Each structure stands twice: as structure tokens, then as C-alpha cells.
Amino acid sequence: MSDNVHNPKHYQGRNGLEAIDVHRNFMNDEQLTGYHLGNLLKYLIRYRKKNGIEDLEKAKVHMDWLIEKEKAMMLQQQALTKENATLDALAKACTLIGGKSDQ
Question: Model confidence over 14-31: pLDDT tens digits?
Fold first, then answer.
């Protein structure tokens, strides 16, 4: 795969920082999802008229980043759900021990 797909020099600063790292740092999850979807769509629409396979590879990179982000968010949500269930169980146990109920 070409270097223009995974580490394009024109998106790197003097110290090697890439534009995607800046996006990830300053955009919230919703904005970052929109960024990836927009670029994915752009590369898919233009691939036959502009850069062919290279544009399809770039679309794939954005798809992979989007999948990676969504998986991380799903794992985070699962961890929060598990934590909330544990806290609920502890609260019920405390209620049973203390004989009080807020319900």
C-alpha cells in the first residue's frame, strides 16, 4: 500500500504529529464519527475519477478508524453498565443491612 494512504507526509507536522491525532484530540465522539463518515464518503464517491485504488484504500483506513472507535465506545459502555449493576447491587445490599429503603 502506498505511503499516501497510511502516513502521508503532507498531513505531518515538523515533529511527525499527524492531522488525525489533532482531530482525535479536539473533536468529541460525534464530531469524529462525522469526520470519518464524511471522508469515507468522499473517497468512495471520487475513486473512479481521481485516484482509483488509492482512494479506496483511504476509504478503508477511515472505515477501520471508525470501527476501532466504535468498538472502544462499546467496550466503555459495557464497562459502565457493569459498574452500574455492581453499584445497584451494593445499594440494595446496604438497604437490606440497614433496614432502610428510599423507594
Answer: 777 888 899 999 999 999
* C-alpha distances in Å from residue 15, one per residue of 12, 19, 27: 8, 12, 21
Cα 63 from Cα 71, distance rounded (Å): 12
Contact between 11 and 18 (Cβ < 8 Å)? yes
DSSP label at 18?
B
SS3 state at 14: coil
- 7 close to 33: Cβ distance less than 8 angstroms: no
pTM of the model: 0.67
Sorted by where each begins, the domain ranges of the chain are 3-98
Q: How far apart are the first and last CA of the chain?
A: 61
